Amino acid sequence: MIQIYGIPRQGWSMEEKLKQVAQWVIHSKRIVVFSGAGLSTESGIPDFRSPGGVWDRYNPEDFYFHNFLSSEASREKYWQMATEMYEPMKKAQPNLAHLAIAEMERLCKLDCVITQNIDGLHFKAGNSEEKVIQLHGTAMYVSCLSCKKKYDRDEIQERIRKGVKVPYCDDCSGPLKPATISFGQSMPEKETEEAYHRSSLSDLFIVIGSSLVVQPAASMPLVAKRNGAKLVIINRDPTPYDDMADIVIHGQAGPIMDSILKKVKQGLGIGD
To answer: 230 is in which domain, residue-wise?
Structure first.
């Protein structure tokens, strides 16, 4: 069941909103999906900012990138937190929203996914690597900060399970870190530029599960809207961009996206 919070925008019913978004999906040529932490929490992965989230147990100030580089104690604390986060990520499975987004790709109704998430669930759902832009990196592998050598995450987690507090590179002895973006760490230039480019060219921009408060990623819906795209926001709670969106749907992303996908397939004459 889809829960609705507040009064539907412009007096539209939920059904009217779902039908309109489905029609836009059917007729749009360059659809960008922007996914955030709300998508991950529906798969059972704890988020950072909500009550009971990671920052209720750790101080965010301890995890700035410069601390990781300068202090062995900070690296140890970082790996403690990262290990705690990795286990639920590894076990998590895609939810209905992930599966709907992957199906949009199979229907040739997806230009790309721009994701703030680091859990790899878009790939588990079936999206191809060339369709997913990971703005904040991925927790699924580890890289050396010195020589850039990559390691499978499970290999490094096995070292930690055996008692290693802070893993180091086999080749150059540089510090190893999950391939995610920490506070104070530069955003990946290639991915960020590509995300802005795709946003500017989109004709339909669908935000799913993002509070739209983390910059610079949160500015991408604005870029899309200013360049003529229709903007749809699907999120549990209100966002700073709700007033400029064409349609806002407050509720669980999984059931909402599943319903939209079914209407898209009906409109395209495709059975389940």
So the answer is: 11-44+94-136+186-272
Run means of pLDDT, 10 residues per run, the chain, 272 residues: 42 92 97 95 78 64 84 92 89 97 98 96 97 95 96 96 96 95 85 97 97 87 96 95 95 97 94 66
The pLDDT of residue 85: 87
Predicted TM-score (pTM) of the model is: 0.89
Q: Which residue is associated with the tokens 């408060």? A: 213
Note whether residue 2 is domain-resident.
no
The total of other beta-carbon atoms located within 10 Å of residue 139's CB is 19
Q: 14 is written with which tokens?
A: 């939920």
Catalytic residue among 98, 122, 136, 250: 136
Helix (H, G, I), strand (E, B) or coil at 71: coil
Task: List, for residues 54-89, the tens digit of each pLDDT value.
Answer: 666 766 667 789 988 998 999 999 999 899 889 889
Are 225 and 247 within one domain?
yes
136 as an active site residue: the answer is yes
Q: Residue 114 pairs with which residues in a beta bridge? A: 34, 133
Judgement on whether residues 125 and 165 belong to the same structural domain of the protein:
no
174 and 144 Cβ atoms separated by less than 8 Å? yes
The answer to whether residues 17 and 32 belong to one domain is: yes
237: exposed, middle or buried (Cβ count in 10 Å: 0-12, 13-18, 19+): exposed
- Count of domains observed in the chain: 2
Residue 77 and residue 159 share a domain: yes
